[in-house]
Specification:
The protein has 72 residues and is mainly β. It has one domain. 0% of the residues lie in helices and 35% in strands.
Length: 72
Amino acid sequence: MQSMAQNDGGARLIPANAAHQYTVTPADLPLSCPMPGMVLWNSHPRVYLAIEATGWAKCAYCGAEYTLQRDR
């Protein structure tokens, strides 16, 4: 089981790149990998992913796939 960390504000952080598929919402835009709620110390540099046009993006560093859940 992977351990969770807390940031200075007390919020729970998820391990970066722990999963290979993530569902994101418009509230998560602009999309970056790793995402702001992920632990960064053992991950790759933050890159921004263009997901708005197609609804899908893949990180070139870690292979994580992101799917945009659009509001209906």
